Amino acid sequence: MSFFCNGPVALVAQHDEHNGQGWRVIQFQEVTKTFGSRTAVNKVSFNIEKPQMVGIIGRSGAGKSTLLRMINRLTPASAGQILFDGRDILSLKGGMMRRWQRDCAMVFQQFNLVPRLDVVTNVMLGRLNGHGTLKSLFNIFSQEDVNSALGALDRLGIAQEATKRAEELSGGQQQRVAIARALMQDPHMILADEPIASLDPMNAKIVMDALREIHERDNKIVICNLHTLDTARTYCDRVIGMRDGFLVFDGAPEALTTAVAREIYGADESFNEAATSTAIDAGQSGSRESAGAMTPAAAAV
Ligand SMILES: Nc1ncnc2c1ncn2[C@@H]1O[C@H](COP(=O)(O)OP(=O)(O)OP(=O)(O)O)[C@@H](O)[C@H]1O
């Protein structure tokens, strides 16, 4: 299904919170965020009914980051509901809220690692929410934590960097460490806020391949804010377009034509898709840096 409209949409299907296959549905119901007089996210409604890789696109200021940050409660919503398994996650407090935040791991544009800590410790920080207060306070990790962190790094193809300080790594490597840290949370979903915006095309491809592989192999939802249409088309099963806080497009990547993109971006006839391109060539694998056990996922899309 795809649709396009110029105003608020409310397409919340009425159904059980389970999709009949034991998989838990996420429902966004008129989710809204206002900052003073500005409405950053305006009555956004949609459901995710199966593990999908969802790309959110739109021009700067459209509300993409705010929407993502509301999901894991980094930004409080002003109105609406986000239901997971029928439970409104926007009203969770204390330990329940922290557990939810562990369930939806965030990956940020600027990686958010601790620069002077070694890579493996940075990855293990993903476990902190699951530890008791004392253990968390002193960063006490078990041998099992160390083994899991090394396993996650190996999966991301950077186990050999485990003992280096995070600040010694390239941007692409740091983002893979951040993804390994997210995996340590064993989350239901990964929320990636412009994960490749600071990376060159080769590293952008490695990072997007990694996210796609996690989606495919672990059957996890990945929601990814993206600035580039070609990346959304190549990697995502579903694209959501935002404009001025409204959800204005929700459909398959094939439906994301240049004309549709022009509407989402509020651009005129001079709109040039190349301006949003990262020039990721999904087929260019010969010279690229190894991503370890990654499957070049773009080929599967
Ligand atoms: N903490 C804040 N205080 C006030 N206004 C904010 C705050 N965060 C976001 N906004 C405003 O909300 C609107 C949506 O911002 P948001 O960062 O969600 O957009 P975006 O689509 O992610 O943009 P970009 O692609 O540039 O990151 C913008 O007008 C922004 O200025």
Automatic annotation (TrEMBL):
UniProt EC number: 3.6.3.27
Pfam families, alphabetized: ABC_tran
Gene3D superfamilies in alphabetical order: P-loop containing nucleotide triphosphate hydrolases
Entry keyword annotation includes tRNA processing: no
Alphabetized InterPro entries for the sequence: AAA+_ATPase, ABC_transporter-like_ATP-bd, ABC_transporter-like_CS, ABC_transpr_PhnC, MetN_ABC_transporter-like, P-loop_NTPase
GO molecular function, one term: ATP hydrolysis activity
Gene Ontology, cellular component aspect: membrane
Annotated keywords: ATP-binding, Cell membrane, Hydrolase, Membrane, Nucleotide-binding, Translocase, Transport
Bilayer-crossing regions: none
Domain ABC transporter, residue spans: 26-269
Region (Disordered): 280-301
Database matches in SUPFAM superfamilies: P-loop containing nucleoside triphosphate hydrolases (SSF52540)
NCBIfam families reported in the protein's UniProt record: ABC_phnC
PANTHER family from the UniProt entry: AMINO ACID IMPORT ATP-BINDING PROTEIN (PTHR43166), PHOSPHONATES IMPORT ATP-BINDING PROTEIN PHNC (PTHR43166:SF6)
The family this protein is said to belong to: Belongs to the ABC transporter superfamily.
UniProt-recorded name of the protein: Phosphate-import ATP-binding protein PhnC
Gene name per UniProt: phnC_3
